[in-house]
Amino acid sequence: MKAALVIMAAGMGSRYGGEKQTDGIGPHGEAIMEYSVFDAVRAGFHKIVFIIKPGMEPTIRALCGDRIQTMRTPQGEPVEVAYAVQDFSSVPAFYTIPEGRTKPFGTVHAALCARDLVQEPFAIINADDYYGVSAFATILQELLSLAPAGEGTMVGYRLKNTVSDNGTVSRGVCQLKEGKLDKVKETLKIKKYPDGAIVDAADPDQEVPLDPESVVSMNFWGFTPWIFEEMDRYFQAFLQNLAPGEQKAECLLPVLVDRLITSGQMTVSVLHTDAVWFGVTYQEDRPVVEKALKALHDQGVYPSSLKA
């Protein structure tokens, strides 16, 4: 059985102030998602699907897409590459896009845009997060053992390792039960203080302390194609309940997963690896990531350049 990696690269990067999905942060101008592709292919993923904004395909092809087509899995199989565009044309006809809305409809909508390109078990990730070498091998093994329906998986990271010193971040804070995901709460304003304390700052007048050791989702999920029907159902309900003129609300994967778990429709295993996560939410995060990536090249984790 084969598996695909779906990369969500259509976000707007408003807090970063630019196209962080394609920004060259590695020592030879590598974007973060190039490391994910490299790690996924050497783990054994046979297909890469990019979810992109309209007009973005030539950029992705030049950055890494055309080069991926020359890559081989450890079994010697060629790697497939496909592109799915996330735009408003794929929004159900019953919903009228509010005038002035430019923001995409979130990660559930993004994943649905790749539906026609994915017929196998798949992992789905953010383009601007570095997930670590071992995480891809770990999730691939689990993906290939999932039941055709009703099961999913995720790679979990420690909250303390995923916050930024430069502003608030959004994370899916998880509760586990007997190794399975029991609850996931999409927490939109997680703040780290200089003393290491971490809080949910959604209400600045009543911040809620968070356990730094909590497991969080970094949108590294694993599903079978069964999930697309549930995504479609949930996305339609999401749109039906939006307030008229809503400009920014997003339909998010962690919220969908939580609902499926609560309703008993799905169980989700939580995978732990020794992989280190890092990413760029703000421009001020970039020097830290640049240093970390250079160190990985120097240690031989990656070749001198991923562009070769």
Task: Report on this structure.
With 308 residues, the chain is of the alpha/beta class. Helices cover 26% and strands 25% of the residues. The chain has helices at 32-43, 57-68, 107-113, 133-143, 227-240, 253-262, 286-298; strands at residues 4-8, 47-52, 80-85, 122-126, 129-130, 151-158, 169-177, 180-192, 198-200, 208-210, 215-223, 267-271, 278-279. α1 (32-43) crosses α4 (133-143) and α3 (107-113) packs across α5 (227-240).
Question: Quick gist of this model?
Answer:
This protein has 308 residues and is an alpha/beta fold. 26% of the residues lie in helices and 25% in strands.
- Total number of beta strands: 13
- Tally of separate helices: 7
Fraction of residues in helix: 25-40%
The helix-and-strand class reads alpha/beta
The major beta sheet can be summarized as:
11 strands, mixed
> Cα distance, first to last residue?
29 Å
Strand content: 15-25%
Radius of gyration over C-alpha positions, nearest whole angstrom: 19 Å
Order of helices and strands: EHEHEHEEHEEEEEEHHEEH
Question: Unreliable segments (pLDDT under 50, ≥5 consecutive)?
Answer: none
Mean pLDDT: 92
Shape: globular
